[in-house]
Structures are given as structure tokens and as C-alpha cells.
Amino acid sequence: MTHIAVAMTGASGAVYGVRLVEELLKANCQVSLVLTRSGLDVLQYELGLDWSGTAVQTQVKVSRHFAGAQNLSVYDEQDMFSPLASGSSVPRAMVVIPCSMGTAARLAAGISGNLLERAADVVLKERRDLILVPRETPLNQIHLENLLTLSRAGAHILPAMPGFYHRPQTLDDVVNHLVGKVLDSLNIEHNLFPRWGQLQE
After folding, report:
1. pLDDT tens digits along 156-187
2. Where are the domains of the chain?
3. Can you tell me the mean pLDDT for 137-141?
4. Residues 6+ apart with CB under 8 A from 109
5. Burial class of residue 49, CB neighbours in 10 A (0-12, 13-18, 19+)
6. Cα–Cα dist 91/69, whole Å
């Protein structure tokens, strides 16, 4: 079973992270979900999802949301005893979605102050795939330099820039296009949007 770590920060765009977890579970992946405190706040503000509480309470709430998925583990950002903190149990890939510019800055500086940062550092040092989905605009020079540093270190930078060639009709179509691009980067098959050349006139 393919193991993918997903981390959600306090950047706007919580729906992207939730949809990605849904699709990874559909693809029978083992998912380790890291939620930052700010990420939990944005989940509640943008989607009305209250996943706060103790570690056990959060695990129950998240599992219930994803229909009791058995291959889903949830970790608090301060849980440095999580398997994700060790290179001996590194996932095949990690996706930070959405990725705040603060998170990108700390990753670019090699800071491992919480589980998200440590897990991302582990993924990079073990030469696995780290995909960052920044959701910020406009970008200043500091943002751009941090993202360039991360790209040079081996991270994939996949900004939340949905395309429109597939003629989206709903907000779900827009979200699905972006999440589909993430799945493409993970080499996971999906049918979230039509490919170029597959559109019906």
C-alpha cells in the first residue's frame, strides 16, 4: 500500500487538502495527515469542519468525516514521536496542501520545529517526493527565493493555479483540477478532469 503524508497549514484553501485526502483514500493509499493549529482554524472557518480536540478526539472526527477510513492516521503538529519524524519509516511522498509562506520559509531554512517541518525535512533528506502547494498571491521576493531554495533542494512546487481549458462549470471542477495535478505528480491515476484532447465539442 502506497504511503502518502499530507500536511495542512493555515493558508487559505483547506478544501484542496480535504479533497486530496479523499482521493488518496479512494486510491487505497495509506494516508498520514498532519494538521497544524492554524490549519485546524482554517478548516473550521472555510469548511465548517471542527476537528479540534485531543489527539484521540481529532482522530475520531477526521475518520468519521472520511467514512471511517482504516488506512488514515492523524497527527498533531507537536507529535514528534510520530513515525513521520524518522527516516526509518519515511512515506513515499509528502504533500503540503495548502502551504503557507511561513511554512515554506521554515522549510527553506531547514527548521524542524514541529512534525510538519521535521517530516518534510525527512522526505527531502531521504530523496523522496515533497510537493508543496502554495496558496498565496501576490508573491514577494522573499516568497519566491524561499520557493526557489526548496525547488533546488528537490521539492516540487505546485502552486494552487487551476487551469480553465477543461471548461469548469462548478467550484468543485476548479478544485478537482488542482488536486488532479497533485495526483499526477504522485503518479496516482484519477479521473478528476478531462485531459487536453479529450474534451467534447
Report:
1. 999 999 889 888 999 999 999 999 999 999 99
2. 3-185
3. 97
4. none
5. middle
6. 18
Residue 179: name the closest of 189, 188, 192, 170 by CA.
192
DSSP 78-119: T-TTSGGGSGGG--SEEEEEEE-HHHHHHHHTT--SSHHHHH
> How much is the pTM?
0.95
Residue bearing cell 483514500: 25
Amino acid making up residue 112: S
pLDDT tens figures, 44-56: 999 999 999 999 9
Question: Burial, 189: exposed, middle or buried (Cβ in 10 Å; 0-12, 13-18, 19+)?
Answer: exposed
Q: The domain 3-185: what is its CATH number?
A: 3.40.50.1950
Rounded to whole angstroms, how far apart are CA atoms 13 and 135? 7
